[in-house]
Structures are given as C-alpha cells and as structure tokens.
Amino acid sequence: MKHSFILVLFLLMLLWQQETKAQQLCNFGARAAGMGNASVTTSDVWAMSNNTAGIAGLKAPAVGVYAENRFGESGFTTVALQAVYPTQQYGTYGFSVSRFGDALFSQQHVGIGVAHKLGQFSLGAKADVWQMRVQEYGSQKVVALSGGVQGEVVPDLYFGAFAYNVNQARLASFEDERLPTTMKAGLSYRPTSRLLLAAETEKNLDHNADFKAVAAYALLQEKLILRSGFSTLANSLSFGAGFKARQLQVDYAFGSYSAIGNSHHLSVAYTLNADE
Does residue 27 contact residue 37 with C-beta atoms inside 8 Å? Predict the structure, then answer.
C-alpha cells in the first residue's frame, strides 16, 4: 500500500510539474494571471504568495478571494483566500489558504508570512504547509519556506525577486520526489502613470527557465486596467481586465494554451479603511 501510494503520487507530480503548469504554487490572483504571472514586483494582497515582500507596500488591511479553472476540467480548479494586515512598527503580516483538485487528487495549503520595509526596499518571508492527497492512498504533508525582496531602484523602475520552497521539501523518498523549488526575478517600469511594462524570468529547478513579458494600461481615470502577458515556456498568451471602485477591486483574466486549452481566473479584493 505504501509503495503504491508513492508511485501514484510520483506519477501525479510528474504530470503536475510539466510545462502546462496546471497548478501554481506561488502565482495567485487574476491580476497576476492577466499579466502572464509576471507579478514579482507588484504590491497587493496577492503578493502574499507571488512575492511576500510586496505586502509591505500595503497601507491598510486587505482580503481577497480567488477562483481559477484550467482547460475546462473540474479537476484543475483552484480556490484561494488571502488576507494582509499591516502594522506601523512591526511589519506587515499575511495569511493564505488554497485548494486545488478533486476527489481523485487534491492539494491544499495554509500559509503565514511577514514583510518589513527597510528604506526603499522590502523583505518578506513565508511558510506554507502543503497537503497532497490521493484517493484511497492517503495523504502527505510538507512545509515549504520562501523569501523575497522588492524595491524601487530608481524613480518608476522596480525590482523584485522571490524564491519558493528554498528548503526543497521532500514529498516521498521514492526517486527523491520533492515539492518544486522555484526562483523568479523581474523588473517593472512606469513610463507614465497609466502604463506599466514588466519583464520577468522564472526558473523551476527541474525545468527550463520561463520568460514573461507584460503590458498594462489604465483607462477611465485609472479605474479600468487592461492587461496582456506572454509566457515562453508554456507558449501561452494571457489577457485581463481589472476594475477598481473605492475599496473594491475585481479582476478577470483569460489564458490561452495553444496545445492544451484555455484558463479562466477571477479574483475580488477589498481594502479596509483605504485612503481616499
């Protein structure tokens, strides 16, 4: 029974880690999805998972919910909730939970994180507890540790870097199967207040590097944002739109994978006591 569980888990993890990226460990939120997940320099509630250092830029508590479906299959659905609470002296704290999969195979996580601003740069760290479950074979739990940095290099030019699962958490001794370790770094630039350009590279230790490029433009007094991104590894295009009304932000993204199918992403975030 134990060997059968390990074998099934190994096969599922092989499928999971392919270029389709059916489930991301460190890319959440429809805003990020609309930008091809080139989100290592962004500062919002979803930075809790995308680059924890980014939550240090939030001035007020925020909470967000997220739903994603890939390829039109119910088994490739992710739901998530994230919350961030900034303090004046002791940094910014975050909490995240998510679930992916169905009754046959599922994975879920609970995470906590903290970030602190030091001058023009921010540092962040996060710990996630992941549980992988295979029907009739039981489950495995691992802890993944991550860290990141983010900052404004020169006016309107931003840098970010994030390393996920730096401890290379082991799922099974069979074939030394481990949770994927991912590193990403990128730059973003605002030539005007309405236009954002970004480029990012992401590297899973077991796969080729992924290069991403993105553009976002704000319309309607910067209340409506249009986004588009491209990923070389998955050969995918993504498009998205976001609408902000006072303390509420709603984002939607559509992704096209030429060889597999399409994906849909929707997130809603609410900021408490936001500055007017």
Answer: yes
